[in-house]
Request: fold
Amino acid sequence: MLCVVAAASLWGILGVFSRSLGEAGLSPVQTTELRCLVAAAILLVLLAVFDRKLLKIEARDIWMFIGTGLLSISMFSILYFTAASLVTLSMAAVLLYTAPCFVMVMSVILFKESFTGKKAAALFLAFVGCILTAGIIGGSGPLNVLGIAAGIGSGFGYALYSIFGKYALRKYHPFTVTLYTFMVSCLCLLPISDVPGIASAVSSSGGVVLDALALGTVSTLVPYFLYTYGLNRMDAGKAAVIAFVEPMVATLAGFFIFGETLTAAAVAGIVLILASVVLLNMGGREPRVSKK
Reply:
């Protein structure tokens, strides 16, 4: 549970780095490419040096990493960075967190997970908290329709990571899952990333290099490993709801870094999000997922 909370907190500052890269002239696709390239390169070197057996996968299992890499990471990152450039960080984060709705439905169908009253109550508290945090209720000003659509799309993409990741973790170590997720995403986005444009931006500003490294490590590699590790020890629906702390962190980051308004409704939303995490974790521990 602590691993998932820590991962969500680091994801909460994702928009800080993506906005900076966007201001440097990089598109959401290019930002996603840099994110995946940095994460994959660092992890590849670490595994090659310390544990090469974790680099091995079977060719027949590549579909799992197409799911986590292309269908999840690529899609949700591009849409999330788009949303973060059009609306507040808290709004982008709350729309991303439509994901548990998708995860719980798919988990019931695919993994035969139970949908308990406690899960339903926690999901309700967290979702209402996210609505308040984003300013959808109690906020002011017109809503950005394109930003909202991109945010909901990012939520669906994020949900797919929990689903495909659950399959992959039945057979592979979390490091292996994380590595091939970002390798597949990086390779798939390469043809449409305008590599010369990325190289030009990187060479022209040291700040771009620092932001790209921070994006790829602090808000990508580390939290994805933590989340994957936690996901291996609880059911997918529970992990997705615990990660609702991300919009709380995104709201605070927007307030302190970008001067975004922190209203009374947002504070109430943060309290509800924390209450949902506490409620969801009352009771015994969940059994570990067996590995074949």
